[in-house]
Amino acid sequence: MKQNGHSNSATGNSSLSTADRLGALAEPLRLRLLRLLENRELTVGELAKVLQTPQSTVSRHLKVLSQSAWLTRRSEGTATMYQLLIDDLSGESRPLWLAVRDQVCTTEQAAQDDRRLEAVLDERRLDSRSFFGRVAGEWDDVRREMFGRGFTPVALLGLLNSTWTVADLGCGTGNAAEHLAPFVKQVIAVDQSAPMIDAARKRLARFSNIDFRAGDLESLPIEDMTADATVTTLVLHHIEDPTDAIAESHRVLKPGGVVLIVDMAAHDRTDFRRTMGHKHLGFSSAEITSFMTTAGFRDVRVHSLPSQTDAKGPGLFVATGRRAVR
């Protein structure tokens, strides 16, 4: 039934059987869709970004949910907005959804969806400001067009102390070292893979302040109390016992030195163990805090990083801590 551009598919479907309604809930992706759409309107494109799924797949599942009276939809310009409204569900559907909702909401996958949803909603708010608030929105667009997206975080590295020695642990092909080298006195780049170090040497040949060393993170080729800071980016989940690597970071830091760890938040993508050799499916905030405090770090802080809507991996966090001065 349509009225003022609205099409309500969640009501007026008394002919649907309980089996029909349950059948629509049998697909995990449709459960994720319903959870996201409860009391929140989203488009097909926005849902595709959150679920990291092709729009055609999302559209197909939305059609099933609409036909099974789980969703309302309305047109807004050229877009169709979908939503699950508890109060509009039939007497048969409401208790079914309430029975499964809590189970869906407690999974790690749900937490990942929520992080990506926040990024999508942030994009929507920016679009809204661009449309309705000419100053803020248009300036962001102009600045991005003129200078690109990535200059702000790189420029903020200028806040680093120029006398520091920073150890890039698990340097890989040199992504972090490339950003750090212009702003600090020395970078010690460590990796267990000789091919990785060779690739990093070629990539960073223009820098004279990077010292490449082969070695394991659990037994670093660095003397005690050498570094002012250590950086470990997307490496810990490859290590059997991360506490050993974190303890080594503590050993090589000077008193008052800072550790920075970037890694994946806890997730349930078990295929990563097989396809990429991951030892751990990310880490919770409580886990990483425990690892760092056990190693002796103080002032431990863990922050979730903003999700990128075009990123296909799990959410990320950054954890920092400090070696005690005494």
Top keywords for this entry?
elongated; Arc Repressor Mutant, subunit A; 13 helices; 326 residues; 2 domains; 4-stranded antiparallel beta sheet; Rossmann fold; 7-stranded mixed beta sheet; alpha/beta
Would you write up a description of this structure?
- This protein has helices at 18-24, 28-37, 44-51, 55-67, 93-105, 108-132, 134-147, 151-155, 175-180, 194-203, 242-252, 271-276, 285-294, and strands spanning 2-3, 6-8, 72-76, 79-83, 165-169, 186-191, 210-214, 227-233, 253-264, 297-304, 316-323.
- With 326 residues, the chain is of the alpha/beta class.
- It has two domains: 2-114, Arc Repressor Mutant, subunit A (Orthogonal Bundle); 151-323, Rossmann fold (3-Layer(aba) Sandwich), CATH 3.40.50.
- It has a seven-stranded mixed beta sheet with strand order 7-6-5-8-9-11-10. A four-stranded antiparallel beta sheet has the order 1-2-3-4, with no helix packed on it.
- Helix 10 links the parallel strand 6 (186-191) and strand 7 (210-214).
- The relative contact order is 0.09.
- The model is unreliable at 1-6 and 130-137 (pLDDT under 50).
Topology:
Layout: E1 2-3, E2 6-8, H1 18-24, H2 28-37, H3 44-51, H4 55-67, E3 72-76, E4 79-83, H5 93-105, H6 108-132, H7 134-147, H8 151-155, E5 165-169, H9 175-180, E6 186-191, H10 194-203, E7 210-214, E8 227-233, H11 242-252, E9 253-264, H12 271-276, H13 285-294, E10 297-304, E11 316-323
Parallel strand pairs: 5-6, 5-8, 6-7, 8-9
Antiparallel strand pairs: 1-2, 2-3, 3-4, 9-11, 10-11
